[in-house]
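Q: I'm writing a short explainer about Ig-like domain-containing protein for a general audience and would like to include a description of its predicted shape. Could you first generate the structure from this sequence?
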Amino acid sequence: MGYINLLELKLLLNISLVVLLVNGHGTQTEAQPEFLAPLDNLTVTQGRDVSFTCVVNNLGQYRVAWIKSDSKAILAIHTHMVALNPRLSVTHNGHNTWKLHISHVQLNDSGSYMCQVNTDPMRHQSGNLDVVVPPDILNENEPNTLEGGVANEGGNVQLVCQATGVPEPAVQWRRENGKDIVVRTEGREKQVVKFVEGERLVLNQVQRTDMGGYLCIASNGVPPSVSKRFDVQVNFPPNVKAGNQLVAAPVESHVLLQCIVEAFPTPLNGWHKHDGMKLYEGEKYTISEEKLNAYTWQLNLTVKNLHKGDFGPYICSSINALGKSDARIRLQELHLPPKPTTTPTPYVPSTVKQPRRKQHYGTHGKGHEAGKGANTFNRDTYIINHIQENDYLGSLIVHEGNGHGLVGMNGATMGTGNGLGGPGGTNGGGLEKPRNTQMPAPIPSRQPHWILNNKSRAMDIFSHRRTVAFVSCCLLMIYSLLMLLTFT
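A: Of course. Here's the predicted structure. Afterward I'll give you a sentence or two in plain language.
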């Protein structure tokens, strides 16, 4: 019985050995796992989330593991987490993709990560994680203190701005509102720049104009850049200047007196009269001051309802821990001319209504063409060209009725409606009398002219022209009669 059991046991062992051999031969013929894509190199800002992706085909009975290369620490096998880090997790899509997730990345998460398959020999691929940190300005050793940010005028100020970040940030200094930074050397040479590089800003021989805000700006290419403000203060005694040293105003009026004060630290300002009496806000005085910048104030004093006792010197003063200063303004009476007891009637000059300009145009025909561009008689001007009698006798041309006119050598046109007319030929019975108005300035002419300044002189001239016209007509009629007799 015992012998049979021994044979059965030997048979079972032989069968097991055959099975193992068969299985081993089959394993060797199966396809081996392979990576379809490399592991990416990642860069992430501190505090963000990131994940590595590992794609493996033909995994079979093998397993995927995640390892931190620098520490050789196993983070996870398949979907089972080994590392006790709540920010790490692994996911699998059920096919060939495994992901290692890192949430809220910290600086110590930087390094190389490995996706590994437990074949013999092992197969693996690696990816690098770079964690960057935005710049930050340290609050240690604050330079904005009494020792670092304040100095007397002519002293030195040093500001220090330390910044951290990955990669290491660069530090730059600028002034508020785009003002220039004045960098002075020991030799009193100065350089005016818009910015200064480096963690330290040294201001030598500071002046009051150097006061104000200075910005330390740190940047390393990782947003956001950061900045910090440092306040530079320069102490100096007051300096007072009067807006106007002499002011005049009449009695019963209000007057404004002004002073400009430069001082730091903030001074105590006030107004006094020449006898030392301090002035206060009230019905008589209005006192105010306006801050123009970090170290400049404008002092205003309004004196109301001036009377004789208000005239004289006024003093504006300023005092701080470093000294005192004042300025004097003299207020004197302004004497105005006495007001008239009666109001005179304003003089209103009489204006002569100018007559409307009446233009006269020649009628169609040769008379019109001949008179084009000539100086025709105008009612508004009393300028009459002096024309010699022989000019009239030798140069007048008669046109037949129906509105045609006589055109003389001087270009004047005379209408002849039913007879001889005056200039313009409106009534055909004589010259139209001009209106007696104010004489205009004479107009230059090649021929002498008369300027008529009274009615009688104008009538004489027109009578003369009328006589000349009549004689001319008679001569023309005689000439026509002689020609008729000659031909007959």
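A: For your explainer, you could say: The longest strand covers residues 226-242.
Q: Perfect, that's easy to follow.
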